Amino acid sequence: MTRDARRLVVVGQGYVGLPLAMRAVEVGFDVTGFEIDQGRVDRLLAADSYIEDVDSATVRDALANGRYRATADPADIHGFDIAVITVPTPLRDTQPDLSHIESAARTLAAALTPGALVILESTTYPGTTEELLVPLLEAGSGLTIGTDVLVGYSPERIDPGNEEWTFVTTPKVVSGINPASLAAVDAFYSELVVETVPVSTPKEAELCKLLENTFRHVNVALVNELTVFAGELGIDVWEAIDAASTKPFGFMPFRPGPGVGGHCLPVDPSYLSWQVRRSLGESFRFVELANDVNAHMPIYVVRRITRALNDRGLPVKGSRVLLLGLAYKRNTSDARESPSVVIAAQLADLGAQVRAADPFVDESVPGNGVTRVDCNAEELAAADAVVMLTNHDAFDVKSVVEHASFVLDCRRAVPSAVHVEYL
Ligand SMILES: NC(=O)c1ccc[n+]([C@@H]2O[C@H](COP(=O)([O-])OP(=O)(O)OC[C@H]3O[C@@H](n4cnc5c(N)ncnc54)[C@H](O)[C@@H]3O)[C@@H](O)[C@H]2O)c1
After folding, report:
1. Which of 9, 15, 158 most suits a substitution to test ligand 1, by most atoms within 8 Å of the C-beta?
2. With contact defined as beta carbons under 8 Å apart, do 41 and 35 qualify?
3. Which contacts of 45-51 are long-range, i.e. CB under 8 A and separated by 24 or more positions?
4. Average pLDDT score over residue span 67-76
């Protein structure tokens, strides 16, 4: 690869791919965002960003200066210098679904020319780069991977909504299938981020990402389970966590919540446990336990709502319950795997009149049996129970406590009052 290798393709223009594409435009790459969803391509071409961390104005400027284009046509990517794959890696029937990586690899293989660099960023189990991506690139291109074409893996650490630790300021772990590949991957990201962290092989980089997510998943499960027990024992777990956080070493605070959502916690650790079971025949017990504890949190929240209504002589059936927040994470629109959706469905199933407010999440979520409303004084006052599930800044917590007759706050966001219960 030469210094003037500037034609970059980013495969997948989602939460990971679009910010990467915009950053690459900023530092001077000529970027093609390859995206199979034509609706997304159309929105990008109209400078209409659907990712919160990317302003529409940024897309507009990138289009206007001619250094960015979005396309769903594979013919547009032929002869690229560098390609980064940022496609989804979901679970299907609890098994890793690598079909998006496979399809991206086939598309790139058909467009490969000698001297190119291909980097995988999607979160996946160790071995994917060398055992899946490399053979697909080789078979589809007829080129020798490792010499004609360099390949590496670099996990994405993007934290949507986090203004301090951005794509640029967060150190980036980089790897390659051989020293030449590592050097090329490192050189590429060194232009984009403040610090790169080279590791020996793609497997260490792949495991690094799964370790980070599993660490968080397990610790969130720990505080969630503790929260259930502390509640039964009449102890304020939030205060205990705050107190423990004053220890300057050996403790890191994690906060309880109504369950886990997105991809990092509910999905990614299962890639690791799946691989451990497949390769070693062993059960990764920490992951299985964390999955179990976190998956039960929405059920626990519904139980707490049921109990609170019951205390006031109200059955769930027919009661009006207002859910605040459908996204799994505050100040984002991401409702993938969101516990709020599970809670809404369970309450609707029990016959509650479920209403839900979220200024960010698409109106089609959560679907059947739930009415989407605004969080205003009338809605708050008309609800038999208000449940704070995602503490978006847009929710006026003083108004919540002032107008609601009962609040179950799963985020410790609402000021304390006699009619406010915390998870
Ligand atoms: N969202 C995060 O916060 C985050 C953080 C770190 C890592 N990751 C990982 O990054 C990867 C991508 O996640 P995301 O959140 O950006 O997903 P996303 O769903 O937001 O975006 C992925 C995009 O890829 C497109 N796509 C799918 N197959 C394609 C193909 N063959 N060719 C071109 N486009 C294709 C989809 O239409 C979609 O627009 C996943 O492996 C995820 O686990 C995500």
Report:
1. 15
2. yes
3. 45/69, 45/70, 49/18, 51/14, 51/15, 51/18, 51/19, 51/160
4. 97
Q: How many angstroms does the Cα of residue 124 sit away from the middle of ligand 1?
A: 12
User: Is the predicted pLDDT of residue 169 greater than 90, yes or no?
Assistant: yes
pLDDT of 412 strictly over 50: yes
Give the closest residue (by CA) to ligand 1 atom 23.
Answer: 12
CA distance 241 to 50: 36
- Quote the tokens at residue 153: 């893996």
Say if ligand 1 is within 6 A of residue 88 CB.
yes
| Residue 93 confidence class, pLDDT cut points 50, 70, 90 | confident
**Contact of 286 with 265, CB cutoff 8 Å:** no
Structure tokens at 175: 């790897």
Mean pLDDT score across all residues of the chain: 95
What is residue 5's predicted lDDT score, i.e. its pLDDT? 62
Cα Rg of the chain, angstroms: 23
What whole-number distance in Å separates Cα of residue 61 and Cα of residue 284?
Answer: 47
pLDDT at 16 over 50: yes
Beta-ladder partners of 31: 8, 68
pLDDT of amino acid 2: 43
Q: Is the pTM above the cut of 0.85?
A: yes
| pLDDT tens per residue across span 305-325 | 999 999 999 999 999 999 999
- Of 407, 371, 402, 403, the closest CA to residue 386 belongs to 407
140 in Cβ contact with 110 (< 8 Å): yes
Our answer on whether the CB atom of 334 is closer than 6 Å to any ligand 1 atom is no
Alpha carbon distance, N-terminus to C-terminus of the chain:
55
For 281-338, where are the alpha helices, taking DSSP H only?
285-311
Beta strands in 65-201 (DSSP E): 68-71, 82-85, 91-92, 95-96, 117-120, 150-153, 172-176, 196-198
Q: Which residues pair with 172 in a beta bridge?
A: 196
Q: What is the pLDDT of residue 160?
A: 79
